[in-house]
Amino acid sequence: MEPSTKLASSPTCVASWHGIWPTMPPTPWQRSPSSSVPKVPSTTSQRRLITASPQANSSTKRSRFSWPTPPGVPRSPSRATPMTRNEQIATGLGELVGAEVRITGTASLGAQRATFFIDILDGATSTPAVAQVSTSVLGSVPASAEAAMLHLAERVGVPVPDVIAVSDDLPGVGAPALVVSRVEGRTVPRHILRGLTDEAAGESLARQCGEALARLHTIGEAQAPASLPRLSHTAYVDDLEGKLDA
């Protein structure tokens, strides 16, 4: 008479050269009076019996590589969904301004920089702003130099937006970025010209543009930031061509 052997009451997972396999309770050839742990079948036909476990016959189809995790083994943490480019930019801008940033829209114009309409959220306060992030190697002027020029232009009376924050290396993005206050209006010249309803409006616009340009020319080269390139027209074009060929 065969010695009595206590059979396992539930399927067990054992390791084999195929990985982790769920098994049925020990079959007669696996029983051992000295051990209650089932042996790994040694033949292909015996290993096939392993796949006849309740899990394999479940109505839910599973891949051979997605068997249930054995008891006591922690599940691997699920991978976080990668952030989109806009989410990366919003996170970087938030670190830059020290508040939550929400992107509310984008502008279609701009060949060298992406322009985002954003809201800066600080408690119950929401401040509308504009963020420009460089997208091209042609952006030769550092964002910090552009911000410095905006400050200089403001001092001499040129109407410019307020600089909120600036970075030559936006956190998590690695591109220059400039955040300024949002000024309502139009920027595309043909849209502005179409909006001129009479001759007086055209004359007023031309006068305002002339005054702004005249004020800009009162800024001397010595006042410009040191990071602003001092290039002749020819050297500037050569610099752009060199970047395109790089």
CATH level 3 topology of the largest domain = Phosphorylase Kinase, domain 1
CATH architecture label name of the largest domain:
2-Layer Sandwich
Unreliable spans? 3-21, 27-32, 44-65
Number of helices: 6
Net shape: globular
SS content category: alpha+beta
Total E-strand runs: 7
Listing every helix as H and every strand as E from the N terminus to the C terminus, the arrangement reads EEHHEEEHEEHHH
Q: In CATH's first tier, which class of the largest domain applies?
A: Alpha Beta
Q: Percent helix among the residues?
A: 25-40%
Instruction: Kindly report the name of the CATH homologous superfamily of the largest domain.
Output: Phosphorylase Kinase, domain 1
Sequence of strands across the biggest β-sheet:
3-4-5-7-6
Mean of all residue-level pLDDT scores? 74
**Largest beta sheet, briefly?**
5 strands, antiparallel
First-to-last CA distance: 86 Å
Indicate the proportion of strand residues: 15-25%
Radius of gyration equals 34 Å
Query: What's the structural domain tally?
Result: 2
Q: What is the chains' assembly state?
A: single chain
Q: Can you offer a commentary on this structure?
A:
With 246 residues, the protein is of the alpha+beta class. The chain folds into two domains: 65 residues, no CATH class; 150 residues, Phosphorylase Kinase, domain 1 (2-Layer Sandwich). 28% of the residues lie in helices and 19% in strands. The strands form two sheets. Strands 3-4-5-7-6 form a five-stranded antiparallel β-sheet, with helices on both faces. A hairpin with a 2-residue loop joins strand 4 and strand 5. The N terminus is likely disordered.
